[in-house]
Design brief:
The longest helix is centred in the last third of the chain and has 12 residues. The protein has 3 helices and 7 strands; from the N terminus they run ββααβββββα. By secondary structure, the protein is of the alpha+beta class.
Length: 130
C-alpha cells in the first residue's frame, strides 16, 4: 500500500481512504480481504500445457499471449504464448493475507483505523478516544 506518496504498489493507495470508506467498510475489507478485490489488483491463475501453475497480474494480453507479473516474492514477469496456456481464471484470493488483525489489540486496531482513515492527520476527529 501507499499513503501520501510513501510505500509500495502491491495494494491500493490508502491516501484519502477516509473519504472513500466508512470505518465499518474499511474494517470489513481488513477482516475479509478476498471478499471484494478491485480490478486493478485482481490476480489471474494460469495453468500451462506442461502442468505449471502461475499466479500474478496480467500486464499484457494480446493475440500472441500474455505477460504475467508473478506474486511476491518473485515479482518477475513471465511471457506465455497462447498455445502454452491450458487454462486461466481469476484468482479468488487477495494478496492481503487473511488474519492480519489477529495480532493487534483493540487499541492498536483503533490507532490503525484512525491513522489510515484520517490520512495520517493527528488533528483529525478519527483520533479521538471513544
Amino acid at each position: 500500500h501507499r499513503m501520501a506518496g510513501e510505500g509500495g504498489g502491491t495494494g491500493p493507495d490508502l491516501t484519502g481512504a477516509g473519504s472513500r470508506f466508512s470505518r465499518s467498510d474499511w474494517l470489513d475489507n481488513l477482516l475479509e480481504p478476498s471478499k471484494v478485490i478491485s480490478d486493478q489488483y485482481q490476480d489471474t491463475e494460469v495453468l500451462t500445457t506442461d502442468g505449471e501453475l502461475y499466479v500474478g497480474r496480467i500486464e499484457r494480453d494480446d493475440a500472441t499471449g500474455i505477460t504475467l507479473r508473478r506474486l511476491p516474492p518473485q515479482e518477475d514477469t513471465l511471457d506465455l504464448a497462447r498455445e502454452q496456456i491450458e487454462r486461466r481464471r481469476l484468482y479468488p484470493y487477495s494478496r492481503m493475507p487473511a488474519g492480519l488483525l489477529d495480532v493487534l489489540s483493540e487499541d492498536d486496531l483503533r490507532d490503525l483505523a484512525a491513522f489510515v482513515l484520517s490520512g495520517a492527520n493527528p488533528a483529525s476527529p478519527e483520533f479521538r478516544k471513544p
